[in-house]
Structure formats: C-alpha cells, structure tokens
C-alpha cells in the first residue's frame, strides 16, 4: 500500500512548493507534479502516470480537490479510474477520502462547487476584459514564453531539453513549433 501524491498548478509562473511540502509531510512516498490547467483532464500526463501506477489499496493524495480538477465529471472519472485499480483518493483540505461511502457524496458536492467556482472565475475575467476593452485599456494576454527562442533552440536540442531550459511543458513547446509550421 503506497501513498502517492499529486500536485498541480495552472501556469508555469506559479509555485508548487507548498503542495509538494504538504504531500511529503503527509507521508507520500512518491509525489508527481505538473504545471497545467485543471479545467480539463486532457494534457495532464503526470496525473495519467500516477493513475496507471496505482495498485490495489494504494492512495492518491492531493492537497485540495481543485488540484485534481475543476470539472465535476473529470473529478468523478478520476476517482472512478482509481477505484477500478483498487485504489482510493484522499483530499487533505478538507479531509475527505473515498474509503467510505460518505466520501463519494462529499467529493461529488465538492466537485460541483469547484466547477461552479471555475465558472465564476471565467465570468469575472470576461467582465473585466470587456470593461477594459470599453475604455481602451485592454492589450490582450502577454506571451509568457519567447516563441522565437523556442524555435531557435529546436535546431540545437530536444523538445524535452527546451522545455526544461525555458521552464514550461513539452506540450507548450510542441504547440509553439506547430504554429510556426502552420504559418
């Protein structure tokens, strides 16, 4: 029986250390992490790796439910996938586990709240952008990664090496390289 931690933040400029420290303090022998949006399960390679690694009676531990996902269906599918492997999921804050039936009900409700919160965030963001556009102050999102640098490094190193050097995911590097070839 292993305790496997999973940590996630949405963007490359966010810090994982608080989650990582908490998971290690909770006794997780293995901790995987990634910097990718929780809006959807797609593109979350580390989460998929953790789920594939789970064995009977293992425990997937996350600090908060929104680290697992912000879509109720995705969260429930993740829990289901863990259960299919004989494992269970534990959320540390608030403490909820799928070991008991009550945990499933609470996780469902918390998943719905996380999804609703995500909708509220999008609505507030959209309202702020519309307001900024109406007064001529909206400039659009800022590029976080130097696309030209990524393209120039491609001749010298692998995608994985570029991602490590820039501090982003391999998927982001592939997207940047794809936009060049599409142009």
Automatic annotation (TrEMBL):
Active site annotation, chain numbering? 10
The residue ranges of the Resolvase/invertase-type recombinase catalytic domain are 2-136
Keywords assigned: DNA integration, DNA recombination, DNA-binding
Show the coiled coil region(s): none
Q: What's a single GO MF annotation on this record? A: DNA strand exchange activity
Q: Name one GO biological process term.
A: DNA integration
| InterPro entries, per the entry | Recombinase_CS, Resolv_N, Resolvase-like_N_sf, Resolvase_HTH_dom, SSR_resolvase
Q: Which family does it belong to?
A: Belongs to the site-specific recombinase resolvase family.
- Protein name per its UniProtKB record: DNA invertase Pin-like site-specific DNA recombinase
> Which organism does this sequence originate in?
Neorhizobium alkalisoli
């Amino acid at each position: 029986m292993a305790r496997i931690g999973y940590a996630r933040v949405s963007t490359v400029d966010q810090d994982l250390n608080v989650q990582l420290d908490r998971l290690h303090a909770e006794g997780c022998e293995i901790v995987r992490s990634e910097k990718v949006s929780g809006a959807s399960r797609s593109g979350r390679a580390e989460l998929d790796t953790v789920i594939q690694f789970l064995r009977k009676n293992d425990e997937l531990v996350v600090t908060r439910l929104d680290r697992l996902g912000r879509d109720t269906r995705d969260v429930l599918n993740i829990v289901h996938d863990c259960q299919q492997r004989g494992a269970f999921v534990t959320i540390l804050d608030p403490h909820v586990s799928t070991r008991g039936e009550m945990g499933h009900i609470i996780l469902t409700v918390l998943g719905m709240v996380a999804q609703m919160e995500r909708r509220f965030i999008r609505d507030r963001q959209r309202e702020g952008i519309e307001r900024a556009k109406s007064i001529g102050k909206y400039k659009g999102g800022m590029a976080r990664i130097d696309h030209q640098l990524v393209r120039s490094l491609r001749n010298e190193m692998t995608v994985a090496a570029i991602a490590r050097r820039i501090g982003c995911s391999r998927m982001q590097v592939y997207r940047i390289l794809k936009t060049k070839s599409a142009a």
